[in-house]
């Protein structure tokens, strides 16, 4: 299993080396163009630099294709294969900075799927501290991973900070659904019952688009809020909807606060 701290250090080192190498190759090409020497020497030098650049680029492209397979492996539950895939990407040298940044994100995603919350949070924070450039959209799913991992670790304050950052972003529909589920979980932990029922029917409609277990948890959280606020008819309706989607006893084990809805 990839150790988190050494993986982060290696990714940072490789990105620094790739920047230095690209700078050195650019300077060498400039010297060949404007420097002294015969025309033949300049041509040979430029051809050598170009060939080296193409070779590095092809290797980097292979690493990029390898990295692209990791999310589907994680989604399929093939964690060992995903681990090997990510390790291969991390250890291979790449000229392309995005390949290494995606490897960090994929490892954070894998650790989250493995319920290794602290490691997922460390990786997410390390990625968010990087200059993402063209990969800036990657910050949104990374923030979602961070917020959920912190909630699982009962770090309510840290989760709030990640959620607040997400509210300043333009989210896709899957990200909106993920954020809603996380925010309902967060609100349950801080007993923010009234806010959980704001636009409650709209939230119920969004919950219908979530995976069954997440949808059940979200509707149970709103049901608990309704019960706390004396809206028993709404609480009963939301409880019945949750019961159709998942094993409520298992859900109560994972989220003890929701067990009150069945007492």
List keywords for this structure.
single chain; mainly alpha; 263 residues
Outline the fold blueprint.
Blueprint: H1 4-34, H2 39-68, H3 70-75, H4 79-91, H5 97-113, H6 117-128, H7 139-152, H8 156-166, H9 173-189, H10 193-196, H11 200-207, H12 212-228, H13 232-245, H14 248-254
Helix pairs in contact: 1-2, 1-5, 2-4, 2-5, 4-5, 5-6, 6-7, 7-8, 7-9, 8-9, 9-12, 12-13
How many DSSP H or I helices? 14
Oligomeric state as shown: single chain
The overall average pLDDT, rounded, is: 89
**Sequence stretches where pLDDT stays below 50 over 5 or more residues:** none
Radius of gyration: 24 Å
Shape: elongated
**Largest sheet data:** none
Helix content: over 70%
> How much β-strand is present in the residues?
under 5%
**Total domain units:** 2
Per DSSP E runs of 2 or more residues, the count of β-strands stands at: 0
Kindly report how far apart the N and C termini lie.
Answer: 42 Å
Decide which structural class fits the backbone.
Answer: mainly alpha
């Amino acid at each position: 299993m990839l150790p988190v701290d050494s993986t982060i250090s290696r990714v940072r080192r490789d990105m620094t080396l790739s920047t230095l190498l690209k700078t050195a190759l650019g300077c060498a090409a400039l010297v060949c163009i404007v420097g002294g020497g015969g025309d033949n020497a300049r041509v040979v030098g430029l051809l050598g630099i170009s060939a080296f650049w193409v070779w590095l680029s092809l290797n980097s492209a292979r690493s990029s294709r390898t990295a692209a397979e990791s999310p589907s492996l994680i989604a399929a539950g093939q964690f060992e294969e995903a681990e090997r895939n990510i390790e291969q990407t991390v250890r291979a040298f790449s000229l392309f900075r995005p390949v290494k940044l995606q490897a960090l994100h994929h490892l954070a995603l894998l650790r989250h799927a493995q319920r290794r919350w602290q490691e997922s949070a460390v990786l997410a924070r390390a990625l968010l501290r990087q200059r993402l450039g063209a990969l800036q959209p990657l910050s949104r799913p990374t923030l979602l991973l961070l917020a959920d991992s912190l909630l699982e670790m009962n770090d309510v304050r840290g989760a709030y900070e990640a959620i607040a950052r997400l509210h300043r972003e333009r989210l896709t529909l899957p990200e909106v659904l993920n954020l809603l589920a996380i925010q309902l979980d967060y609100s349950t932990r801080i007993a923010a019952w009234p806010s959980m029922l704001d636009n409650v029917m709209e939230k119920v409609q969004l919950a219908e688009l979530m995976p069954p277990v997440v949808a059940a948890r979200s509707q149970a959280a709103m049901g608990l809020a309704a019960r706390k606020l004396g809206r028993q008819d709404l609480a009963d309706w939301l409880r019945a909807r949750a019961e159709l989607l998942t094993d409520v006893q298992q859900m109560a084990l994972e989220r003890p606060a929701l067990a009150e809805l069945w007492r």
